[in-house]
Fold this protein.
Amino acid sequence: MNLHREPIPVAEAVKRVLSLEAENYIEKVKIENSYDRILAEDIVATHSIPPFNKSPYDGFAINSESTNDASKTSPVHLHVIEEIGAGHRASRAIAPGEAVRIMTGAEIPEGADCVAMFEICQTYEAEDKSYMTIKRPMEKRQNIIEQGSETKKGTLLVEKGTEINPGVKALLATFGYSNVQVYRKPVVGVFATGTELLDVDQALEPGKIRNSNAYMVTAQIERSGAEPLYLGKLADEFDRCYEAVSEALNKVDMLITTGGVSVGDYDLMPDVYEKLGAEVLFNKIAMRPGSVTTVAQVNGQLMFGLSGNPSACYVGFELYVYPYIQKSLNKTEPYHSIIEGILGTDIMKPNPFTRFIRGSVAYEKGKVTVHPAGIDKSAVVTSLAHTNAFIILKGGTRGYQKGDEVQVLLLSPNEGSQFFQIDA
Ligand SMILES: Nc1nc2c(c(=O)[nH]1)N[C@H]1C(S)=C(S)[C@@H](COP(=O)(O)OP(=O)(O)OC[C@H]3O[C@@H](n4cnc5c(N)ncnc54)[C@H](O)[C@@H]3O)O[C@H]1N2
Ligand code: MOO
């Protein structure tokens, strides 16, 4: 085995991964099942909103001209000819001297050009007829939501490549998209390698540990919008690993293995790639943790060899697998967002390579503040439960102090419970 590996910069590694084509298949899903899927078609207004002039209030639809002379001392009296709720239409146009009792959302009757809210009107009955009075003039178009004022038929509202959030779903419903075209979720296979691995329901044995990476990575795959396919554990036996990996490639769009990518005697993945005839895009990155993350491709299909160390595995996934999944989904923005934040704790160790510290980001006293989520070591699992961001410390730096400005990679904005606290 060649022990020397030349580290490449993180940006170069990401570029190499994303330079590979990712196939995007399209499927139709029912609107009910469309949440968080990625649109494979543009959403265009199939009609104007609102489709008709409508009332924003409960009140009286009237013609403003009939109120021209209204005043406190001389209110105008109008004959209320009918009542319409939302979903109903007036039976005829209103004539001068007439009003229609109208509810929020109902169509403005012909002949009316404004709505007087109930609060400014009085009503009375006389000779079996209903009347309303108003003590002030109304303006033309006052309190009317005009047809097409929100959007016009044919307007492009949401572009393909956008994630379907609750608001997009509301638009699908508004415009009658009972089915919508989305990109198929890529299937991402996962093997956890290592003879030391026990299943979650097995009792601990000397020298062994439970397999946490498989559960963590399948959740990361789901969070990224893809479909995980857990294929099981593989002991460190070359023939078995080679067979399992080559079979799995027929079942998945891309394959993740965890463990066995370093230079140890039982690190078998480099030999597996070689026997498969795969091209190794890189096997060493100038970063911590996850420096041994290896990516190889065979016939355009990607194999991500993530580290066995849980923190390194986690970071390797988010930096290299996540954007490739987004690319496979044709998402317009494949990367995690990176923002500026304030370091909440001293981190004094030197950084020979770029360091991605598992962090917890929160809004503190009006500032985006980040703290390490736990022990900053590649082999650590406990900090990951509190991780919602990575603190990026640049390579070639000697240490950072509390209050320093740092880059923060956001993993999932929803996870920062304090992040969206509202002072109101
Ligand atoms: N001589 C060298 N040794 C090591 C180097 C090096 O450059 N030279 N790199 C170190 C770095 S950095 C890392 S990171 C690890 C990476 O090792 P591997 O990715 O090959 O992973 P393994 O050796 O298989 O396992 C590492 C560690 O993680 C535990 N593990 C493995 N799988 C799981 C799992 N599914 N769930 C939980 N924990 C898992 C495993 O038991 C090991 O303790 O190599 C360093 N060594
Ligand atoms: O891959 Mo190792 O985590 O760089 O420490």
About this structure: The radius of gyration is 31 Å. Residues 47 and 171 are 11 Å apart (CA to CA). Residues 27-49+150-183 form a domain with the Molybdopterin biosynthesis moea protein, domain 2 fold (CATH 3.90.105.10).
